Amino acid sequence: MSPRLPKALLKKFLAQALSLSKKAGQIILKRRISGYGVRRKSDRSFVTDVDLEVERFLRAQIGKLFPAHGIIGEEFPSVNPGADFQWLIDPIDGTLSFSRGVPLYGTIIALHHLGRPVVAVVDHPALNLRYSAALGHGTYCNGMPQFVKAQSLPVKTSVKPREEIIVMGDRAQFVGVGKEAAFDALLREHPRVRIYPDCFGHTLAVSGAVGAMVDFGIHSWDIAATRLLIEEAGGKYVCAQTLKRPGKETLYGIIFGKPKVVDWLLPFFK
Amino acid sequence: MSPRLPKALLKKFLAQALSLSKKAGQIILKRRISGYGVRRKSDRSFVTDVDLEVERFLRAQIGKLFPAHGIIGEEFPSVNPGADFQWLIDPIDGTLSFSRGVPLYGTIIALHHLGRPVVAVVDHPALNLRYSAALGHGTYCNGMPQFVKAQSLPVKTSVKPREEIIVMGDRAQFVGVGKEAAFDALLREHPRVRIYPDCFGHTLAVSGAVGAMVDFGIHSWDIAATRLLIEEAGGKYVCAQTLKRPGKETLYGIIFGKPKVVDWLLPFFK
How many C-alpha atoms does B72 have within 13 Å on its Cβ side? Predict the structure, then answer.
């Protein structure tokens, strides 16, 4: 367990993370219009020049602000891997969406202290929505507090798992980790499943707009912010799969959202 | 076939439709914050006070501007059913999303002349995206011309159906009209299927961000704008199912987007 960090320090880290995500969003929106290159990586996923530009920018800024901190990101090697404080960044989560013009991508910035998330930001620049949390200080979107347990404000009903919207990632993510049967079963069983992959699904769960999200086959930087955002908003976060792969990055399967809905979903993915 | 309408008249109708959608969006965003009631209709779908308020507003405005025109909308009886010009309106397409806080809903306004769509608008107020088309004059989003055939600008590759994102509506829509086997088959066969229901999926296809959308079990007002938006952007629109139901509204199944992708999808839903 990480020792309790002073509130002033947490607030400073959170303010820096928010400022960095804002600047990252400005780069993304500008380059979306000016154009950029896109290519496949060795794992067949996509990367664009904008991913690289934003990750370079974030690494340079974090290195200047906190030279002793570590940095873990998708596109470049880790910095200070032994440091107590580690910044996990994903410049564009949802690169395929971004490169095609689907506006549901986002920038993820999280700070972990001794392995525990203490600050988290997910910014959707094209939607003008910025979610943030600091350990012990709640979750906010554009300055408004978020509560997973409540439905969106006008609909104050009790949470019934079968009446909530459930979100999953792309089916291919589940095929890759042997969970396609569970994916298919949930889609047949529940009348309101949507496939909203990437961090847009994550923040829908954080806001309580959907009952929960099930996301498998994802990396540490994809989930770095989600646990804190969900838990600080009163939700439940379960890591249902940790798939270690020799010579490759570990893949995770997570289920998160309103506690009753998460509990209803768990048996499908056990 | 409808006789050719003068350009000045089409432009006037389009400007009015855009102005109406803008005002509808202002009501929706304001009421989203102030709160509203929500209940189920007899067909188990949802309606909110905002749907009713916006439809009443649109009907009153259209009635004032064009008293001889007909009006067809989801929540109230038709007006002037024999008129050559018919306005088809859906105040909030995606009411479930709206009522839960998922920002991917929209207002649909279309004008048909002798059964043929001549003006079409889909407005996403929470996303600040407004798509519009007039017969023979192209499709625009926030003033920028849209071309279905092109991928989003930075990725100038040829269109390969298996590499495009495919969008479908909720599985329940397909179950209701006997197409769940086709839904399941496509989801297993294609690696990049997303479930983005309602008009958000439609406008993703119009912009070329996704290869095509498959949407079944929907009403005349759900599709009133889509055909014109797609065709004026150079895309293909196929009505693959017309399900007449005694004493109930007809349900449609449509497939639309980049012509090569639509052709690839058709055999699944034949």
Answer: 20
Q: Are strands A212-218 and A166-168 parallel, antiparallel or unpaired?
A: parallel
Q: With 0.90 as the threshold, say if the pTM is over it.
A: yes
How far apart (Å, rounded) are the C-alpha atoms in residues A261 and A151? 12
- Nearest by CB to A193, from B100, B192, B195: name it: B195
Chain A interface test: which of B195, B207, B213, B215 (most A C-beta within 10 Å): B195
- CB contact, 8 Å: B81 with chain A? no
Question: Does B98 have pLDDT greater than 80?
Answer: yes
A237, A147 Cβ separation under 8 angstroms:
no
Is B96–A207 a contact, with Cβ atoms under 8 angstroms apart?
no
114-173 in chain B: CB under 8 A from chain A: 127-129, 151-155, 165, 170-172
At B74, the pLDDT band (50, 70, 90 cuts) reads confident
Which tokens sit at A219? 């990396």
Would the CB atoms of A171 and B193 count as touching at under 8 Å? yes
Give the separation between CA B146 and CA B8, rounded to whole angstroms: 22
Q: How far apart are CA B70 and CA B113, in angstroms?
A: 10
CA distance B266 to chain A (A): 21
- Chain B's closest residue to A181, CA to CA, is B188
> How far is C-alpha B126 from the geometric centre of its chain's CA atoms?
16
Query: Does A100 sit within 8 Å of B210, measured CB to CB?
Result: yes
pLDDT tens, residue by residue, B114-149: 999 999 999 999 999 999 999 999 999 999 998 876
